[in-house]
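Troubleshooting: if your tokenizer reports a length mismatch, compare against these two reference records.
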Amino acid sequence: ACRKTMKNLIKIEPLSDDEATAILKLPKFNGLKPVNCDDCGHSADFSRKIFGISGVKKNKRCDDEIQDIISSYISKIYGIAYVFFKSTDDKFYADSACCPKCQSTKITFDIALTDDFLSDISKLTGKPIEELRHGIEANFKHITSNKIKKN
């Protein structure tokens, strides 16, 4: 008799509120955070839902196919439009947010210019933190003003 086995079972589970609160306190995890609702434009106080993911080898966590499978599952089961994948130590997560204004889960995440983040960049480049912050903000303004002009 032949039996099918599932060697590559991916397990996806929402973290409890306590687990999510603890993981959100980690600077490495929270460097990429929700910044804007794609539906209504709201830009603050997003609630978060984080999923723990097991059964994915470290070297496969960035594979589009694996991420698409996980995203599709979370969308179908939990109704969440956007998830962002993150790793800390040996753990793998999908992070999502919900808009407090319109309840949309189409939330864009972006890198937060925290002092820890800028300090790491400063060490790599040898440039002072304030110079880096000013340069990034100036580039952002330049890009967004060009984007507005094109539309």
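Reference record two:
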Amino acid sequence: MSTIQMESELSKDTAFINESSDWFNQMIAAIRADEVQLAVGLADPDKAEFYKSAISGNRDEMIHSMNRQFSQSYIREMILNYSNEIVKRNRKPIEIHVYHTINTLHVWAVIADHDSETEAALFLSEAAVNANYSKFGYTIDTIILEVSDNYPVPNHFIKFM
């Protein structure tokens, strides 16, 4: 290995060490901030549950808590991206209701009878979001009904649009 190559590798190593040092400092600062929130009772319930599990050594509960928080974060992002995709396509369903499980956002959409353009926009919006999130194990499943179908929205769905 030449001197120039060794200097280049050393420079990369130094940059990584600096970046990782910054990352660790930020992580420690965030944990200390969480410690204060917990001490004064301002931590949100999910955060408090996570730390309680971590501190008590309950690994399974800690992982379950982390998975639930990841899931909620991904589902929120998916809802936002899905609605942005629909807006981008200049179509507006009559109503949209959502429900989610651990890794699936279920959408119950009602459109006008014979409105194939809105139907296509909903499927394309679903496809766009699935293309981004399916690699992480999260998907959208859309049910599209026309007004004349006259099916009631299942009770566990929440009106979104």
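Descriptive notes for reference record two:
- The helical segments are 3-40, 45-56, 59-88, 116-133.
- The mean pLDDT is 88.
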